[in-house]
Amino acid sequence: MGACCSAGAVEQNYLSIPMSAGVQGKGGGAVTDLETLFKSWAWENYLRSAKGKKLKFREAQIQLVWDHVKFKSDKPVYTRLETPIPGTSAGVPSTETQVVFTSRYQNDTEVAQMHAFRAEKTTNATITTAITKGFSKEGSFGLELSLPADVAKATIGFGLNYTVETAEEHTIEKSMTWATDTTVTSKPKSVTLAELEIEEQASSWTFEVKVTIKGRITAVIKGTKGMTSVAMTIDGDVATILEDRRAGTATSVPRDVEIKHGKVTWPVTGKCDFRFGVSQKVKVSPVQPIDKRE
After folding, report:
1. Which residue range is the domain that position 164 belongs to?
2. I need a surface site. Which of 6, 34, 164, 242 has the fewest CB within 10 A?
């Protein structure tokens, strides 16, 4: 396209410009924006097929309907990040203890007293995820992954799977309830402290997973000024569209993405951090003897 092209022509073809990186993945990798690719395809089809007066790009709204596009992920391959902390070996998950409930018993008598120590507390287990290379889409990313084996063995707080909600950094919280019902002995003329402690574990991982994409996507083009009715509805096979996008410009869809037999196999890499409770303990300790002069 030479310098003689009009501003209107540049504007109308704006969405045909490939967005190779989409959003920048955490760690600098390329994350392809599928929304941009499919809207570009829809706009080009509209410009070629629409009859009569056509919308200008600034007057158009393009809505993608993903209802008939399916995303299915293979079993992910995890690698634990080497994050040694003082006193531990490389790659060992870090642990820390937090007190979630405290009860203080003061015994002013000359005999030992028995007290019921009952407590129930809820803590949050968290998964923080981010895609470093792959693709993104509007709305929920919806990439379902199985847990790393070590995390699955250590806790039931996350279930068997978790869902990566967005390509950007995102934290998922799950509630875990801890309870105790035990007896605490308070010695004569003393103060006894009973605490419910939760030991938490934290670990970081990278993952690699292949995601299969197939189905048909629909684009609805509407006017935003004056004519607000639907100008055109376009339907297309996702594998065919992405193959055409890549044929047009090699940077639109990465070469390591396989497009074959009507389906797209897209390698995705990411990072995930887990933090969750692994055990509870009741700690009973004397605080100080009561001064007999009081």
Report:
1. 77-207+273-285
2. 6
